[in-house]
Specification:
Distance between the termini: 54 Å
Strand order of the largest sheet: 8-10-11-15-14-13-12-16
Mean pLDDT: 95
Helix content: under 10%
Largest sheet: 8 strands, mixed, barrel
Structural class: mainly beta
Number of helices: 3
Order of helices and strands: EEEEEEHEEEEEEHEEEHE
Shape: elongated
Length: about 230
């Protein structure tokens, strides 16, 4: 079989595709991860994970049925561009999910999306130490792992019919760095210095935009640029 590039698609609403690695373990890939199909055997399609941050270089497989559903010929578009502008001074809100919070609000703009975000949250339960993302040009990285253990977002998805990609967090490299700063673009009402999409109904459109873009020649590791303005 001639090796052929394919690109993953999500199999679950939270944004992940589970693949079986050779040896028996499992890995979870985000959408638009490039894989190189190598063979078909015993009802399965085998491939090498070629890009991204998860299981890169390892051999994985899907059943032929699932490969037909979740592997596509269509790859990502070019770099994403997102702008975030601070909106006023911090103010209090009562979140139905997180209770009383003091939020630093912002407005996020991307093609087809304008959404309210919170750039920092404080409450009696959250000690100081987090600060809003600084103004400047930052790098949006590709998703690197599930955040169910720290930052479970299933409650937001359950409360928002049609939401997809809630467990996909996009790491941010500050000031043009390509190193994960532990700040992310993600959905939710609680921000620890992240760009947190507070307007839950806008998340799916933002997710679909970000996940379908990559910086060329970056081995699928970089999504695009985040410009923050104060």
């Amino acid at each position: 079989m001639i090796r052929k590039s394919k690109y993953t698609r999500k199999a679950s609403a939270d944004g992940w595709l589970r693949i079986k690695l050779t040896g028996g373990a499992f890995a979870f890939l985000c959408e638009y991860t490039r894989v190189e199909v190598t063979k078909e055997a015993e009802g399965r399609v085998f491939f090498k994970v070629a890009e991204g941050y998860i299981a890169v270089g390892q051999e994985g497989s899907l059943s032929k049925e699932h490969a037909a559903q979740y592997l596509s010929d269509n790859g990502p578009q070019g770099p994403a561009k997102v702008i975030v502008r601070y909106k006023g001074e911090p103010s209090d809100e009562h979140s139905p999910y997180k209770g009383r919070l003091r939020q630093q609000w912002g407005e996020l703009t991307a093609p087809g999306v304008i959404a309210q975000v919170t750039l920092n949250s404080k409450s009696a339960d959250i000690p100081g130490g987090y600060t809003p993302i600084p103004p400047g040009d930052h790098t949006i990285l590709a998703p690197d792992s599930s955040h169910r253990v720290h930052g479970d977002t299933r409650g937001y998805a359950m409360a928002t019919p049609g939401m997809v990609g809630n467990d996909i967090w996009f790491p941010i490299g500050l000031n043009g760095s390509t190193v994960n700063s532990s700040r992310y673009i993600h959905v939710g009402h609680l921000s620890e210095g992240c760009v947190t999409t507070h307007e839950l109904k806008k998340w799916t459109a933002l997710y679909n935009y970000l996940i379908s873009h990559r910086v060329p020649n970056s081995m699928g590791k970089y999504v695009g640029q985040l410009k923050v303005q104060k």
